[in-house]
Protein: Dual-specificity RNA pseudouridine synthase RluA
Organism: Psychrobacter pacificensis
Amino acid sequence: MPFTDEEVDALNVQENAYPLEFFKDFAQEITVYEDDDIWVVDKPAGLLSVDGKTLKVSLLARLERANPAVKLIHRLDMDTSGLIIFAKNAAAQTNISKQFIERLPQKKYQARVFGQWEQVGAAGEISVPVRYEPTTKPRHIVDHDWSKHALTLYEVIAHEMCDGQPVTRVMLKPVTGRSHQLRVHMVHAGHVMIGDPIYAEGAALKIAPRLNLHAQQLRLKHPVLGAWMDWESPCPF
């Protein structure tokens, strides 16, 4: 849920009061892989990828305190946890950013959605455009007339119960990278992600303490070695 102005001020003050050791320990705890060129970390849910307009508490800002050379490549939503890669020099940043533009990196997310959706093992795709809707900020919506398409591949992993409610565990592979794409595509499919503070309501919101969306797998080419590299983060829900 959105923070009040007072809560934002308090969080900013608290962040500025932390000693350098706090940021170094934080960076070490979430590091999945690091070398001279790249830094792969496991972002906690509830933390911005980059500073907001008022809230100056983010993953990038914390990593910059630990290593000022770190450079942004892509982002995850504040409510989403999981793998995110940063560069440690300009050349690596340019190389991997180009890979993202060319859609070479392979990303897989695990999610739990409300209700029982299809049969276990079922797979398919959702291909409908997603755009920002300023009248319902920060929501995005499906707009069939929008020019930029959005494509998500999915596979049903399991049917489960959560707090007495049926939910479905799915693996999602975004082919395109529109903002809120996975969340809106699940809404479009009729199965909102549980714990989603933006799109879920009622039982779908209350049965999980956080958005059940996790960036579980990431695969791309090392910017210097040229070899494909794979990372995986255990799903926390």
Q: What stands out?
A: The chain has a mean pLDDT of 97. The chain has six helices and eleven strands. Residues 5-104 form a domain with the Pseudouridine synthase fold (CATH 3.30.2350.10). Residues 219 and 230 are 4 Å apart (CA to CA).
